[in-house]
Write a structure and sequence with these properties.
By secondary structure, the protein is of the alpha/beta class. The chain has three domains: 95 residues, Periplasmic binding protein-like II (D-Maltodextrin-Binding Protein, domain 2), CATH 3.40.190.10; 79 residues, D-Maltodextrin-Binding Protein, domain 2 (3-Layer(aba) Sandwich), CATH 3.40.190.10; 98 residues, ACT domain (Alpha-Beta Plaits), CATH 3.30.70. It contains eight helices and 15 strands. The strands form three sheets. Strands 1, 2, 3, 4, 5 and 11 form a six-stranded mixed β-sheet that branches. Strands 8-7-9-6-10 form a five-stranded mixed β-sheet. The chain has a four-stranded antiparallel β-sheet with strand order 13-14-12-15, sandwiched between helices. Helix 6 packs antiparallel against helix 7. The longest helix has 16 residues. It is elongated, with a radius of gyration of 24 Å. It starts with 9 loop residues before the first strand and ends in a 6-residue tail after the last helix. This is Prephenate dehydratase. One of its GO terms (molecular function) is prephenate dehydratase activity.
Length: 318
């Protein structure tokens, strides 16, 4: 009796090959040897997950220099059925490349992804003050644009190693303003059961304020502060229905199965008209949260047991 081969899991990522997103996907052990599907933009990657065309998608969500990737944050806030299942950090380096024979003095039009351009603009302004930026859909696509029919692009900002994929020459390296820049990527799948805590976890959610009033944001933040939950990210994004309405993207240390985090999320849910749970997953840096004794799981459980005994009329132990 013959058996059909096991189906390969499919992972969508911003392509083509050689992007930082692909570098992040290479860190996912369970993705090795599976079907990797390059796409043109973040929306296509997430749509693959929603429709079931892919099992998961790798997307950039935050950069240490430019902050949150707003298109990713807005997509996770508005597309139902998605859940973050892991995060990965990729150091960001850039080189300026051109077709063979082109020199830095020949460069007037530079193709670059907008985020990459922002990180390298200072160098470009000094090296080629009169240059013009032509946006590209990815860092690798910028290099591909050098060879497009009828192209006006003279040079491209691309990741190191791009010369392995295209016939280009490196005009300059180390051109990013911050040599220690890091981009945070998240692996996004469909909503499912949350895994168990590892001891070094992060919980992501999006919450709206109940009303535009003084102290509304403080009330939201106190749900975490009073339970000893540290926030690693707090960013506001406009809801879009009218002026003055915002949602908040929140990353908190800990796991939803940790008592202090669960209690904080219950408080957020009571006070916010709309809460989107984005997932609890292992931190990429594997740094465990520092927890005061008053906020550990046992203290929360002891408090609940005490309350139950009071309600049931159980006499305190001698």
């Amino acid at each position: 009796m013959s058996h059909s081969p096991e189906r390969l899991r499919r992972y969508s990522y911003l392509g083509p090959a050689g992007t930082f997103t692909e570098a992040a996907l290479k860190q996912v052990e369970e993705a090795r040897g599976q079907d990797w599907h390059p796409v043109s933009n973040l929306g296509e990657a997430l749509n693959d997950v929603v429709t079931g065309a892919s099992d998961a998608a790798m997307i950039a969500i935050e950069n240490s220099v430019d902050g949150g990737v707003t298109v990713a944050q807005d997509a996770l806030a508005t597309i139902p059925g998605l859940q973050i299942i892991g995060e990965y950090l990729v150091p960001v380096r850039f080189v300026l490349v051109a077709r063979p024979g082109v020199t830095i003095e020949d460069v007037s039009v530079v193709a670059a992804h907008p985020v990459a351009y922002g990180q390298c603009r200072k160098w470009l302004d000094e090296a080629r003050p009169a240059h013009r930026h032509l946006p590209a859909t990815s860092n690798v696509q910028a290099a591909a644009d050098l060879f497009a029919a009828g192209t006006q692009v003279d040079a491209a900002i691309a990741p190191p190693g791009i010369e392995d994929h295209y016939d280009v020459e490196i005009l300059a390296d180390g051109i990013a303003e911050n040599p220690d820049a890091v981009t945070r990527f998240v692996l996004v799948g469909r909503v499912g059961p949350v895994g168990d805590p590892t001891g070094a976890d992060k919980t992501s959610l999006i919450a709206e304020l109940p009303e535009d009033r003084s102290g509304a944001l403080l009330d939201l933040l106190e749900q975490f502060a009073t339970r000893g939950v540290n926030l690693t990210l707090l960013a506001s994004r406009p809801i879009g229905d009218r002026m003055g309405r915002y949602r908040f993207v929140i990353d908190a240390e800990g796991h939803i199965k940790d008592e202090r985090v669960a209690d904080a999320l219950l408080g957020v849910k009571r006070s916010s008209p709309n809460v989107v749970f984005l997932g609890s997953y292992p931190r990429a840096d594997r740094v465990a949260a520092t927890i005061r004794p008053v906020h550990d799981d046992d203290r929360f459980r002891d408090a609940r047991d005490w309350l139950r005994e009071v309600i049931e009329g159980v006499a305190p132990a001698e």
